[in-house]
Structure formats: structure tokens, C-alpha cells
Design a protein that fits this description.
Radius of gyration: 16 Å
Number of domains: 1
Strand order of the largest sheet: 1-2-3-4-5-6
Shape: globular
CATH topology: Metallo-beta-lactamase, Chain A
Distance between the termini: 28 Å
Helix content: 10-25%
CATH architecture: 4-Layer Sandwich
Number of helices: 7
Length: about 200
């Protein structure tokens, strides 16, 4: 757990997580302010949980500063390669567009920067939502899928509550109870706590 450094930035208090590894360092998500916060760190890969603007605001800046590679799910591409995507969906904002060096799909064992992780595709909050599991550490980078006492909203374009709830129950609640979830917003939680106490998907 101590290997993960956290940062919270932007108007929506979005979390980013930096994971320092021997083969290359990973940054998960890029909220506003993340570029400055991790300016002195070496970032080899920026992995995006999904394409919502609060999670990708600093992505292009980070890539420019560090020369890092960016990876995300194919369904994220329309949101981040087109500067006007969010404006066309009613949000008065634009992001600096960027493209993936690698497209990620769900897999049981995927190697990035010399380390292996499991990638879970759990859409419903957003098309292409990914969670990154490190079984050896018992840690799940959860994005906006599951929060402490909550779940990601499903009323935005591409949202689907039924799909989100099913994905959480099938793919996340099947993990060991002690698995720590590092979410896109708010404090960390555990799978076991949410299975019992979460009002949306718990018992």
C-alpha cells in the first residue's frame, strides 16, 4: 500500500494514484493539478480508468512533460481524441486531445512496465471503465465504479445503471473481502465492507 502515492485535484476532487516500480512507474488517471504534483517523479505509463474530463484533464500535459505512454480502453478513445467531445454533450469545457499508445481490454494477466496486473472492464458509469487489480498487493484501482458507500453515477451519456451494478457484483464482489479499493473520488474502502454496507449493491 505504501508504494501508492495519491493526489486529489480538480473541481470534482478526483483521485490519481502513482505506483513506483522497478521496471517503470505508473500513474493512474490525470486530474487537474496532477502534472504539477508529479513533475519531479518519473512517469513511464499513464493508465486511464475512463475518459471523463475530470480524470483526463492533465493527460496531455503529463505526456508532454514525461514522454510517457498512455493506455486506455478502446471505448475511451472518442472522449479524449476529440477536443469538442464534452462540449457537444452539454459541458462547457474542452480538453487537450491525446491518443493511446496502447489500447487495453479486460485480461486476467496483463504486463505493463514490467509488472503484471489484472484488468477488469466494468462499464455502466462510463463506456470503457477499467479497474486495475494488483493481486499480490491486494489493491484495486477502481476509478468511478465503486466508492465507499456509493457507486459511480450512471445518468451521464453512455451510462447504464443495470450494467454497472451487475459488473460490480460479478467482477469486484468476487474478489477477496480484504481487497483495498482505491476509488476515483473519496476515501479508500474494501470489497468486504461494500458487500455488506453499500446501499446500492450491498446485501
Amino acid at each position: 500500500m505504501n508504494q501508492f502515492k495519491s493526489f486529489t485535484g480538480g473541481a470534482l476532487d478526483t483521485n490519481a494514484f502513482f505506483y513506483e516500480l522497478g521496471g517503470g512507474n505508473l500513474l493512474f488517471d490525470a486530474p487537474e493539478g496532477a502534472d504539477e504534483r508529479f513533475a519531479r517523479e518519473k512517469i513511464d505509463w499513464l493508465l486511464l480508468t475512463h475518459g471523463h474530463f475530470d480524470h483526463v484533464a492533465d493527460a496531455a500535459k503529463i505526456q508532454r512533460r514525461h514522454g510517457c505512454k498512455i493506455a486506455y480502453h478502446p471505448d475511451t478513445a472518442p472522449m479524449v481524441t476529440d477536443a469538442g467531445f464534452f462540449r457537444r454533450h452539454g459541458f462547457e469545457l474542452e480538453i487537450e486531445p491525446f491518443e493511446a499508445d496502447r489500447l487495453l481490454e479486460e485480461c486476467d494477466s496483463c504486463e505493463v512496465a514490467g509488472t503484471r496486473m489484472q484488468i477488469l472492464h466494468v462499464p455502466g458509469h462510463c463506456p470503457g471503465s477499467l479497474c486495475f487489480l494488483f493481486p499480490g498487493e491486494g489493491i484495486l484501482i477502481g476509478g468511478d465504479v465503486l466508492f465507499r458507500g456509493g457507486v459511480g453515477r450512471w445518468d451521464l451519456p453512455g451510462g447504464d445503471g443495470t450494467l454497472l451494478f451487475e459488473g460490480i457484483k460479478k467482477k469486484i464482489f468476487s474478489l477477496p473481502d480484504e481487497t483495498v479499493v482505491l476509488p476515483g473520488h473519496g476515501p479508500s474502502t474494501t470489497v468486504g465492507f461494500e458487500k455488506v454496507h453499500n446501499p446500492y449493491v450491498g446485501k
